[in-house]
Design goal:
Elements (H helix, E strand, L loop, with lengths): L1 E6 L3 E8 L2 E10 L6 E14 L2 E6 L2 E7 L6 H13 L3 E2 L5 E3 L7 E6 L21 H17 L4 E4 L7 E15 L3
Parallel strand pairs: 6-9, 9-10
Antiparallel strand pairs: 1-2, 2-3, 4-5, 4-6, 4-11, 7-8
């Protein structure tokens, strides 16, 4: 009988039991440590509406849905912010993805999104246990936003942390990229 088990969330292993003998079989990989996560969408326009009021809007640029987990630090935020700011996913004069949001004088719309850490491996209702609690996530979200603002001349707009938001966007391409910071 082969059954999966986990030990301290570091290594996936199997216990094989046959005729009262058991054998430990280690998987060929360690489980990946969780890290700050972003879904980036290249847009021709986007906005955030809260309680029927538009609170942020951009024209050409990037929408960044940002997810934060328990182990994230300012170092994770800086690394991901740097990567996003330099990401070359806008077309140059030859139609190749070769320009950053800064190169095209675009904008960023950054929205916190704990649901990026949804786990639906068991059943149909996702759990969000891997998402950081607000007391850890909100300061890191704010740090991420301020870090990009202080290191770029790009226009930065944001959602409101923890608010129920309607995010509208026109995905240009469509181009959607998922990034994680190095853990």
């Amino acid at each position: 009988m082969l059954s999966p088990s986990k030990h301290k969330n570091t290594c996936l292993f199997f216990v094989f039991v046959s005729n009262s003998k058991s054998k430990l079989i280690l998987s060929p990989y360690l489980s990946k440590k969780k890290s700050m996560r972003a879904v980036i969408q290249r847009v021709s326009s986007a906005s955030v509406t809260i309680d029927g009021q538009i609170t942020a809007s951009i024209n050409q640029g990037l929408v960044v849905l940002l997810g934060i987990t328990h182990t994230d630090t300012r170092k994770n935020a800086e690394a991901l912010a740097h990567k996003i700011a330099g990401l070359r996913i806008f077309s140059d004069s030859e139609g190749k993805m070769n320009l950053s949001v800064h190169d095209i004088n675009g904008s960023l719309l950054i929205v916190s999104n704990f649901t990026l850490y949804a786990n639906s491996s068991k059943g149909f209702r996702p759990n969000f246990m891997e998402a950081a609690k607000p007391d850890h996530a909100e300061p890191l979200y704010n740090y991420f936003v301020e870090y990009i603002r202080s290191h770029s001349s790009t226009d930065i707009q944001t959602g409101v942390f923890g608010a129920m938001m309607d995010v509208s966007l026109v995905n240009d391409g469509p181009v959607t990229i998922i990034l994680e910071s190095d853990s």
